[in-house]
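Example record

One chain of 520 residues, shown exactly as stored in the release files.
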Amino acid sequence: DDEPGASASKEGTDLVVKNLNTGTERIFKFVTEYAFSKDGKQLVFTSTGSKKDKAAPVGVFLLNNTTDVLKTLVKTKGNFKSFVFDEQSEHLAFLGETSPEKQEIKEFSLYYNSPTLDTAQILVDADMTGMPDKFGVSGDGRVTFSKDGDKLFFGIAPIKLPKDTTIVDFENAKLDVWGYKDDYLQPMQLKNADRESKRSYLTAIDIYSTDPKIVPLTDVKLPDATIVNEGNAAFVLASTDFGNRIPSQWTGGTVRDYYLVDVKTGARKKIIEGLDGNASASQNGNYIIYYNDKDMTWNTYQVATGKKTVLNTGMSVKFYDEENDVPALPNSYGIAGWSEDDKEVYLYDKFDIWEFTPDGKSAPKNFTNGFGRSNNLTFRVSRTDPDARFIAKKDILWLSTFNNETKQNGFYRKAANSSKAPELVIMAPFTYSNLVKAKNADVYIFDKGNYTTSPDVYVSKDALKTAAKLSNTNPQQDLYNWGTAELVKWTTPKGFKSEGILYKPENFDPNKKYPMIVYF
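Predicted structure tokens for this chain:
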């Protein structure tokens, strides 16, 4: 059959939508992909239909969970995916192709729907104004709205050429050709071949423009980009190592150039050249911050003025990995976050958190009062609210803490607007992770485990003073002779202080001799 929807040839499965208040259920057949709007009031899904049941609905559907009204957005068989709603849960975009099943090259389009449209419309295809020659919408690119809903970001890619069926397989030579001027060694080319075949280039479109056209923001020579300020910024931060890749064959890494790319015009402005390190934008897009591995400095670029500032100049504190033990320049300890108005940025050293003003006009402050270094504790900000983008002055920060002496983990707390040292919450011989606070209550869930205790999920209603176990991930452990882990410290024959972990069987008998493996 030369029917549409090759990618949908595999039938979907049942999607059950249950109203938790009433207990009623609706079942949608042959569903392959679905997505909820942020407010949960709308559900979009695609159904493949069935070869056995010709009457089964086929296409893309939108369910209003409040009114229970089902709306047909696309009434044809095809491959539809990457459904995404805007922040207001009103507008919808997704990728789709309806090529005949036997057609080798599948040409995707970007679909769009709004409350004023009865069906989804093709917003972008290969013939769109601004589309580079021989390019089309990528089926592998990510689709996302800007936070304000004005722009859509998606990927484009070269249209693949169909296979020449006039040449039989045994007449095709199968070999890999490599030259010393290639950017990458052949094993790396082979390893990344699948990823590169799916590479797409970030592109934007102004949804409400009276003359809509797409604006490619990246290309082969400038392939990587990050959306800034949730897409509301006038630019994206793009980077490339094009022209600098060959040295990576012996250095292990490359230097990169960074650009600001205008989302309305595609105009590019180079702001950083040959950076051995990484750059990122502040949350509101007022600054670009970057760490230079070569001179071990933190730097900012002010977008409005183009001014560059070295933040840690003249400081004796090391902001790079002090225990780096590989033949490469050490990386930084990283960024803890930004303040709500981009007026402060928080950086890590080995132990503490520092507060800098990105314009360099105020002296750096040790946000954790040096408590980490003086007590051999390493503080890192724990994101208890996954949606929080900033460190607000009203916040009570939870600090994931590691005791470098005892190897215990836990948490301290500190008010963002306080000059006091962090306060202890809990320290214990466990690993704590994924601490999340309930949105409207002082209730926390987290993971806890160690070598002898399988990681499980716990809930606490009293700021971790007590916690109830919610999961049991390793019930079969009781059936086996498990093990124990013990921190051991000693002095080497040359007088150096050393430490390690001694693992023993659970039924260890100190009166017996056991074979031992030493790893260092």
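Notes: Confidence is low (pLDDT under 50) at residues 1-9.
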